[in-house]
Design brief:
This protein is an alpha/beta fold. The chain is 63% helix and 9% strand. The protein has helices at residues 2-11, 16-38, 40-48, 66-85, 87-137, 140-145, 148-165, 170-190, 192-239, 241-246, 250-276, 278-302, 310-351, 412-418, 442-447, 463-467, 476-485, 489-493, 512-526, 542-556, 591-597, 600-614; strands at residues 372-380, 389-397, 401-405, 427-432, 435-436, 449-453, 530-534, 560-564, 576-581, 584-589. The two termini are 72 Å apart.
Length: 617
Amino acid sequence: MKELFKLLRRFVPPYKKYLALNIVFNLLAAVLTLFSFALIIPILEMLFQIREDVYSYMSLGHGNSLKDVLVNNFYYYTQQLIATQGASATLAWLALALVVMTMLKTGATYMSSYCIIPLRSGIVRDLRNWVYDKITRLPIGFFTEERKGDVMARMSGDVAEIEYSIMSSLDMMFKNPVMIICCLGAMIAISWQLTLFVLVLLPIAGMAMGKVGKRLKRTSLQAQNQWGVLMSNIEETLGGLRIIKAFNAEDKVQRRFRNENQRFYRLSNQVARRQALAHPMSELLGTTAIAIVLWFGGSLILGGYSGMKAASFIYYMIMFYSIINPAKDLSKAMYAIQKGLASMERVDKILSTRNPIADPAEPSQLPALNNAIELKGVNFSYDDSRPVLCDINLTIPAGATVALVGQSGSGKSTLADMIPRFYDVGSGSISIDGTDIRKLRVHDLRSLMGNVNQEAILFNDSFFNNIAFGVEGATRADVERAARIANAHDFIMETPDGYDTNIGDRGCRLSGGQRQRVSIARAILKNPPLLILDEATSALDTQSEKLVQQALDRLMANRTTLVIAHRLSTIRNADIICVLDEGRIVEQGTHDQLMAINGHYRRLVEMQSANTVNTPA
């Protein structure tokens, strides 16, 4: 319960109005239930003719309690009605009053549910928004440690489980305690001795239900984790379907999926069986409690140890039974909540994750990049076990083109990721015009930069929206101008709907060169002071590379550019070429200077030249 109240304190405050109305209508429904059932007593007494007292009108005060006045005057008016209209007509009026009271009670019950629905739906909506917002704000490093499929499972399956298990139980959580408290109050008013016995009996049943509920949460957490494994498996299969088919590995991935799915099947069965135990167990415990109270209370009346009459005892038992049903519903709700709390625990892992890439408390003004970007003594490691960058010292002058070259794994892409703060340096500093980038707002810092990556990352949307992505208020003329500079306009216009044509998932309807030119057009439209090119032409054929390189040359003109180069022929004219080896800058200079040194760079050039010559046509 402590975990549930902690959850509600986090999410309910925006919906306090609905919660207050729900409680008011639940209280009204409980009071009307008490009064409607109270009408059964005089009906029973009239039928069995066991009430022979004569009543006179009683006023409040003079030592008369409110309860005495209400009960006395009710019987007074009932006797007056019998005297004037007869017993049969009075019975009809009492029955009609019972119907009216029940109608009011059911109306109040409906209104309580009506008011809780916006709270339930609103919390689930907010939860989805918060998880999505958190995912978009978390650093890239978070997703290198977590499976994407598992993150998707938490946002879809776990949030859906929270909606189904916890939010659908909120109505019972707020309604049933009110009913139980009101009924207990009426039971105490009728016989506090018998109610004391009931209060000793009920917690014993509650403890039995609680033990099973704790085991349910533990098993549910295992099942939800396994669901995340399944989602990861599916996500990896869809992403790697081409390789799976190429290597005839269908049987292998099918066996792996079936094994994981079988484990999920077993865990789901355990959860469902424990959850199915809630109703029969609560039914058995409830009936046992009613039987014990019936025996104990009946023995007191038959032995003359209680002042209750038979009709009052029947009313008492009706009140007790009215507690049992909400208690059973409450126990079922607690079972469902335990299952939902297991999902909330998984979702909360994302919500509570600290984002190390944070804005400073007092951010500095964004520099204009008029001087240089400087990296001083930069060191970085992903997991503190092996350094990826070691003592990097590099100056990127404004307006210059700086190329990073080296073998795979030398740290080129990691170094480029440091500048937009996709990762923060372990030690050392990176500054723009003398201002440390950690003193700038992350949004402001990244507004200075445009990225074109080896894999063109596009969205399942139109050409226009992909090119205008991240640029507010871009016009059709702006987008078309950027596309022309990127050599993309002609092939865009050949599509059925031109710039409104949908390019498919990740741009699957385009060739590699076309995807890359669209991503270049996106960078051109942003018009950033700093451009980061991560092997933007390495995966293209010769013809596509020529078109893309022309577009890149136009994009790089009069702009500070950091190039990660795979094909060294594309960076011969760079102002500065930095050669990285095992995370260190081992050489730095122009193409001619580095060739004259006869070191790492020259060997890389000669290796590529040899590979080009030996490559069959």
